[in-house]
Design brief:
mainly alpha; Four Helix Bundle (Hemerythrin (Met), subunit A)
Amino acid sequence: MADPHGKHHDYHLVNPSWWPFVGAIAAFVTAVGAITWMHGAPSYVLVIGFAMVLYTMFMWWRDIIIEAHAGDHTPVVSLHLRYGMLLFIVSEVMFFVAWFWAFFDASLFAGEANLAARVAATGGIWPPKGTTVFDPFHLPLLNTMILLTSGTTVTWAHHALLGNDRKGLVWGLGITIILGMIFTCVQAYEYAHAAFAFSNANGGNIYGSTFFMATGFHGFHVVVGTIFLFICWLRALKGDFTPKQHFGFEAAAWYWHFVDVVWLFLFVCIYIWGNHGGMMPLE
């Protein structure tokens, strides 16, 4: 609650808010809608839940932006917000560790003699016998160049903001968003032309499962990061952010650099090494 006698500390005591409660209900409705939809029910519950999630995000973030403009984000509060974002990114790192672990467990031990089911599924080699994989130096390399370039443009936008160059901020963010959208389109095209599939019914195998889970979740993070940057771009057009107070943009930039780094690991480990590494065929 607000202090009627004036604030005499550097912390922000937030006002009561309905949004955590509404967000929890929205998440529950979305989960129930997704489960029932996967079992053949109509998708309207899922759509309603997703709309509730989007509404909660918009309203909650609006309140936080209002708090920032009101001066509630003191240096101490801003520092703690940065700690929170860093911890969130660490949790995301561990999320991707799980998918890398699954990929390396499958590829490094494709021909392990005491794993009969694994050998039967892979033919004792990696990539599994009969699997046609992507050329890493075609579309994957193009997407690597796109993401690396986007990391440069978002850094340009950040330095422009620090120098109070509003035009550079808007242009840097705009180009980064366009590059993120191009990356997503290229990956969608790549997926549409994959010679392997995620589903066993479509001839999929363990290679397709580990490949799509790792690269697919990264693609989802690219979409989220693009939306994150788009919101920052809209705020920049409205005149938000100052050289001294711009945590919203800074968090988006950190997230985007995290997405870049994860892709580099995916490109090297899955597209390059994963296409030629693994165990040799059983003798």
